[in-house]
Amino acid sequence: MSTETFHKSEVAVLGLGYVGCVTAACLANLGHRVTGVDRDEHKIRNVLEGRAPFYEPGLEPIIRENVEAGRLTATGSAAEAVENADVALICVGTPSEKNGNLGLDQLRRAVEEISARTRTRTKPLVIAVRSTVFPGTCEQEVWPAFEGRQNVQVVSNPEFLREGSAVKDFLEPSLLVVGGTDQNAVNRVAGLYAPLGVEPCLVTLRTAEMIKYACNAFHAVKISFANEIGSLATRLAVDPVEVMDTLCRDEKLNVSRAYLKPGFAFGGSCLPKDLRALVYRAGRMNLSLPLLESAMPSNDAHLQRAIQAVLELPAGRIGVIGLAFKENTDDLRESPVVGLLEALLGKGRTVRVFDPHVRMDTIYGSNRQFILETIPHIGRLLDNRMEETLGWAEHLVVTQKQSPEAAEKIVASGLPVLDLAGARLGVAGPALASRA
Ligand SMILES: NC(=O)c1ccc[n+]([C@@H]2O[C@H](COP(=O)([O-])OP(=O)(O)OC[C@H]3O[C@@H](n4cnc5c(N)ncnc54)[C@H](O)[C@@H]3O)[C@@H](O)[C@H]2O)c1
What we know:
By secondary structure, this protein is of the alpha/beta class. It has 2 domains: about 10-205, Rossmann fold (3-Layer(aba) Sandwich), CATH 3.40.50; about 300-435, Rossmann fold, CATH 3.40.50. Helices cover about 45% and strands about 10% of the residues. The strands form 3 sheets. It has a 6-stranded parallel β-sheet with strand order 3-2-1-4-5-6, with helices on both faces. Strands 11-10-9-12-13 form a 5-stranded parallel β-sheet, sandwiched between helices. α1 packs across α3, α9 (about 205-235) packs across α10 (about 240-250) and α17 (about 385-390) runs parallel beside α18. The longest helix has about 30 residues, at about 205-235. It is elongated, with a radius of gyration of 27 Å. The two termini are about 35 Å apart. The structure holds nicotinamide-adenine-dinucleotide. Nicotinamide-adenine-dinucleotide (NAD) binds near residues 16, 20, 37 and 43.
């Protein structure tokens, strides 16, 4: 059970489309008094007559029961709906414009209507934006309409339901996100869903807006990934479903949190090599796999952003912490840090490097050959103890996750840190920040 307190609220839902109608009906079903608003007469009439205005499994009975019980009604008047509302949920459409940008006309109209109808009211009102909007929209498009009104708060409460299973998704949410700065407003909106028993993720406004985009992009990438792997498997006379089903059985590395943390570019002796081979062989079969083909360029673009961020540091002695392609290994093959060092040295920067597992006297074989071919005088740049690098540097660039002891030393050094690894040491550098 969620820790949020359950208060029955007066709720106005602006927009009775797929999201708004399901939200209105389900919130009424949880016990709230809900007034849905739409500009479309057909949708209003349908709801008032206890019908779903579109096909969505399980929606109609919920609308009927709650209209009959007096907990759900619909109107074309935003004024009527928001008059007594504690919370106004904005669920209007945000369709694509011709250039791909998000169309905010419906949102702006809805905000104007709420603003105009609540100018003289004193009762607190929380406006929750449930429509999908780009990070910054609540601050730039919604807040200004309520400037100076102490009784109005704005929060972001993105919706994650899927058409076709929208009622089920609402009642058993995969994620409940509420973003905002005013604790009471955030709790009020999270509290609407308390009977669902889901722990809400309470985040900042912009994070809430961004999470929705991250989720949808992730879903799109997952589908495209499965389809590209499936197409390649089929061409190779391998059962695509068996491949993906088996892939999904690995819940440690594949379907898990693993690799899903923003950090530095990937490298090493396997991922680049195997991606290249896969893309090459697909190309030879005239099979276009744009997503997989873009992974290496994407990784390189990420490395270039990191290089740019380091080059933008004020001139001075740069201590790089981490040389191998990831923490807890001495493998330098295709380490993106080597590319970073090459770029810095090429630009005449003064650099020293520390990696707890990399010493010139212990690395050998293809590993040694790779680093000596790429940076022949690497031995002169390597420190054997972190203290040496910390004592020498004016800036630190952290490229790998750090052990708690190492992190403590880095923080204690008081040096400015450009954290490329998402190691959360000091302030994230521009390479990391610019990914938002
Ligand atoms: N459809 C989905 O599966 C889904 C899931 C999650 C999030 N979203 C997001 O939720 C938002 C709504 O999506 P949808 O599919 O429900 O859209 P929709 O187009 O089905 O519904 C939008 C409704 O808003 C109404 N409307 C427009 N301006 C209004 C105003 N000023 N006052 C009152 N009503 C107004 C429209 O008449 C329409 O009925 C979008 O931002 C969408 O990206 C959609």
